[in-house]
Design goal:
The relative contact order is 0.34. With 62 residues, the chain is α+β, with helices and mostly antiparallel strands. The model has no long low-confidence stretch (mean pLDDT 94). Strands 2-1-3 form a three-stranded antiparallel beta sheet, with no helix packed on it.
Length: 62
């Protein structure tokens, strides 16, 4: 890739307690384990697919 991909900040705003195992695995794959924890990822289709799997638990900003 010659162009720079944009970074997005993903914050876990809700607890994973009561979530399904699939939702917990997606959050952990994003690197989120604690509430209010923020990680930075590149804006790729793979990452956005993971974000779209659990949008009710996350806050995304650029």
């Amino acid at each position: 890739m010659t162009e720079k991909t944009k970074k997005i900040k993903i914050t876990l705003i809700r607890s994973l307690i009561g979530s399904t195992q699939k939702q917990i695995r997606v959050a952990k794959a994003l690197g989120l384990t604690k509430t209010n924890q923020t990680v930075e990822h590149e804006n790729t289709p793979v990452i956005m697919g993971m974000v779209n799997a659990i949008p009710h638990l996350l806050k995304v900003s650029e």
